Structures are given as structure tokens and as C-alpha cells.
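=== RUN LOG ===
request id: a7f3
mode: sequence -> structure
chains: 1
length: 468
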Amino acid sequence: MKTMKKLLLAGAICLLTATTVLAQPILRLPSAIGDHMVLQADTTVQLHGWADPNTTVTVAPSWGGEVTAKAGFDTAWAVELRTPAASAEPHSITFRTKKVEKTIDDVLIGQVWLCSGQSNMNWSAEHGIVDMQEELTRPMNPQIRLFTVTKNSSVYPQDDCEGCWQVCDAESARWFSAVGYFFGKRLASELGQPVGLVNASWGGTPVEIWTPAETMAGNAEMVAAWEKYPRSRQGWRIGSAYNAMIAPLLKTAFAGVIWYQGEANKRNAELYGAEFRMMIESWRRAFGGQLPFYFVQIAPYARTEGGIAGALVREQQARVTAAVPGTGMAVVADLVDDVTNIHPRYKKGVGDRLANWALGEVYGRTVSKYKHASFRSAEFKRSAVIVTFDNAEGGLVSRGKRIAGLEVCDASMEFVPAEGRIDGDKLVVRSKRVARPVAVRYCFSDGATGNLFDAAGLPVAPFRSDAD
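=== RESULT ===
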């Protein structure tokens, strides 16, 4: 009898516990909405989360403009909220239903940028980035806020990711993207506004896994090239990083994107331009706007002489920035101290050059020249080649007695070293070994750094006249 009573009591307790759990009200926010976050200034942002089905959720920001939404039967809800002008004044936002309430604090209003790509975007002070290590010893701007998306991969698009907003200090910045940090620091300084940086990058990742699978599925050549890629150890699929690390951010209002990637696509360099363009355009459709997109041309890297796979990727990147509106490319060949290291150890110059693109194009600020001199055309006159450039205002300069990396060829297509002479904003190239040149190249190899610059000090981008 006593045993039966104990069993009945235990059953009642379990039932009561289960009823309590089932009755517990739901009000959950995604990780990208939390304390210390930055919201994009003076625009309409979307805040979202999950609550009990058919429940009304009220969202009340401290700057006013309370709004409501009703959770669907899938528990999801979303509201649109107008943000005020940029300000370092800390705000709060309260989310409440009839049964539960949550408040996030220390919310700043400013500029929010997405930082993505592979390891050269991801590398931090802890990875040996020298100027970032030095930066940690200096006072840091607490109006810069950092959010790192935990590396993840998924077959299907996810609605949330792991991560949290942190106030920028020596501890939080230690593992944060050095390129992203220096980019954000420059924006915060020039604009006098808070800056939020979301780092969603992953070392070694090819562009395919950052592109929505349904978008790339329509291109048989790209899919076939991917199928030949030995990626099994990572478990990656087309779109898998996009699904897990970008899709959860699609409701976030960003001012733009900075990107550093391409090394992992040397295996199919000829396709990279089309794939990269596809990725940019798919992101813009998914985010619902013409997001400014500024990226880094991959740095010189070669452990052995003679390869051009990296040069082909750089060529494809140059084609993308020439063809896709709202994009810009930072050339960084002069910022490399060791071409046998695929991860250049200095990133401040990289972040600053990306920031100049954003400051000049997005914010209309007068900044130092940010459009590098690039190949326009080559005119062949007997033994000489006359090369003209775009964005070479003020002329060209060589940092050395001889311009490095020049080559020409005749109809045999056997390239030989050549000499160059600067003529204002043009370059005259010839070789004693070639009587009738038909093509010219500059630094068109994996590890070439070059010494040709424009008058503002930006390196001339590598080029070849014999591109398909």
C-alpha cells in the first residue's frame, strides 16, 4: 500500500513538472540581438525572435516608437523599427508578451558591417598578426562592438547562429578579425560614430560554400568542378557555410560587406570570377538591397617559382570589381613581408584601404586615393608596348631603378623579362630579345610583389594583355 502511494505521488509530481514545463512561456531572441549590440543608424531595421504561437509581442525601444507583432504557429515573429541618428548614447530595447519580458541594454546606434571570407579575414592577434598585437597594448574605442559567428556548417539554412556582442577591448579584440578591427577603427574615427562588426569568416573555405546551394545548382560547370574538390575531411557542401553563418544574419541591417577570400579557389581559378560574382549577387538578393561590397585582392604567395594560379584568381577578382556595381578591390601586394607565408602578418594597411573605399563611396568623405591604377590597354608599336591605365591620375612611379615583374612575348607566346620606362601615366615596355611583341605582363605570377605605384602610393594591380 505504501509502495502504491509513493508511486502515485511520484507520478503526480512528474505530471505537475511536465505541465509546468509545457506552460512555461516562450520569448527568445537570436544571438545577434543582445546587450552591447549596434543597430544601423537612421534606417528601418528588423528585430525578430520566437514566442508562444499566436502571442502578441511588444517591442519598446528607449528612443520611442513602440511596435507590436504576433507570433505565428511556427513561433516566429518580426517587427520593423525605425532607428534614430547615430549616437554613442546607450539605449535599451524591451521585448514583452503578457507573460514574459526581456530587455537588452547598452545598445548603440551607428554603422554595422559584415566581415567575411577565409583565414586572412579571420586571422587575429592570437594568430600572429603583428600590428594587431601592438594594437592590444593601446587604449581601444568602446564604441566599437564585436560579434564573431561561431564556425558552423549546415545542409539547410538556419535561423540562428552562435555568438554574442562584446565591447571592444584588449580581451575581446584579441581573437577578432584584425582586418575587420582596423576597418572598423578607421570608420569610427572618421565618422565619429559607433561601429558594429560582425565577423563570419572561416579559414580555408572556398567561395562555393558561401554561395546558396540553390543558386549554384543552376550552373552545371560549377557543380561539376566542385564535385572534383577533395573536401570530405571538412564535410563542406555547396552553401553549407552560407546556411549556418550568413542565413541567420539576413534580418540584420548592414551598411555593407568587406571580404577577404580566394586562396582556396586556386584549384578552379578560371571559374572564380563567375562564382564570386554569383555569390555577391545572391547575398544582395537575400539581404534585400544593393549592399556595398569591398574586397581584398589576394596577396602574393608562392613557396616555389613559376605558378600562376594565384595570378589567375587576382585577375578574376579584378574582373569582378570592373563588372559588378557597388564593389571595390583593395590591392595589397606591397603589404606583404614574406611571400612564402599565405597569411601576411600586417593587416592595418589592408583594413585602412578597405575603409577608404567605404568612406569614399558609402559615406562621401574626402579620403586619400582608394582606386588603384589598373590596366586599360596595350598598344604595340614595333619593338615597344605602350600600356595605358585607368585611375593613374598624377602618373606612375617606380620604387627602384628597374621596374620589376615585366614580361613580353612575340607570336611564340614565350614570355621573357622586359624593361619598362614611365611616361607620365603610361608605361613603355620593351625587350632586346623580342623584336615584335604581341603581349605584355606585369607581376603575373603567384609570388610577384612588384614596385610600380601610382602617385598616391597605391600599388599598380598585376595584369596581362593576353587574357582570354
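=== NOTES ===
Residues 12-21 have pLDDT under 50 and may be disordered.
The first helix runs from residue 2 to 23.
=== END ===
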